[in-house]
Amino acid sequence: MKRIGAYFIFIFVLTWSHHAFAQLTLPTFSLGYKSIHQPQDFVNSIKILLGLTVLALAPAILIMMTAFTRVVIVLSFVRQALGTQNMPPNQVIVGLALFITFFIMSPFLQNINTSAVQPYLNKQITQEVALDRALVPIRRFMFNETRDSDLALFVHLSKMPQPKTRADVPTTVLIPAFITSELKTAFEIGFIIYLPFLIIDMIVASVLMAMGMMMLPPVIISLPFKIMLFVLVNGWALIIGSLVKSFG
Q: What is the distance between the alpha carbons of residues 190 and 246, in angstroms, rounded to a whole number?
């Protein structure tokens, strides 16, 4: 199970590679009913069922092992801080987050393509070796973005022996530690994003109260000012640039 994430990333890079479509051979299968007389036939049916279940979870596995979590949360914080409700729409936020994630993960995907996909296509290594090689860049990326405190927490919760090196940390322990660190980092960035917009809301509310216009919602007045400020400072470029630079 610890190689499931690497398997789907390996398959993604396999199809993403410019040589993949010409060389990739996909298996075909048909569904039907038949009597089972051997235990092995029953085991194979269970394997197919489990495989289909894992495929349904493949998108979540992919995005949780990449930069997508931090990017989409920060972009959502920006929209909430602006107070523009559903502008930009969810489709735009998720699409932008996906393309930024591809941009951030591009060096790691290139590494997987060079060290795992191409040797596998050229029949120089087996599939098992290719999966192990594909997992190395992804683990390195997750280790770079994971706090030691979060990693120590999940090592303690797993009740495993204290690992001496990073190679001794199982991927099943690394992934939840990485996700927890990404959530904390995203919320820290979101807090910083909220501060200037909160100041604008407070100033507008104070001015309206001083003018005796207490029945007028401050959000109606502050929203145009927040949008104007965000546009004048080229906010989207600043946010996206800071997001990309936050991945060391």
A: 13
pTM (2 d.p.)? 0.73
Crossing angle of helices 90-112 and 235-245, rounded to 10°: 30
Which DSSP state fits 168? G
Spatial CA neighbour of 63 closest among 23, 104, 35, 91: 104
CA distances from 134 to 38, 48, 163, 241 (A): 36, 24, 22, 28
**Can you tell me the distance from the alpha carbon of 111 to that of 135, in angstroms, rounded to the nearest whole number?**
11
In the block, tokens 């910083």 appear at 192
Cβ neighbours of 53 (radius 10 Å): 9
Query: Do 37 and 91 form a contact (C-beta atoms < 8 A)?
Result: no
- 8-state DSSP, 146: S
Residues of the chain with confidence (pLDDT) below 50: 1, 18-24
Greatest CA separation found in the chain? Answer: 85
Spell 152-183 as b/e; 16+ CB within 10 A means b.
Answer: eebbeeeeeeeeeeeeebebebbbbbbbbbbe
The pLDDT of residue 22: 47
The region that residue 227 occupies, defined by phi over 0 for left and psi between -120 and 50 for alpha, beta otherwise, is: alpha
Distance in angstroms (rounded) separating the CA atoms of residues 101 and 68: 5
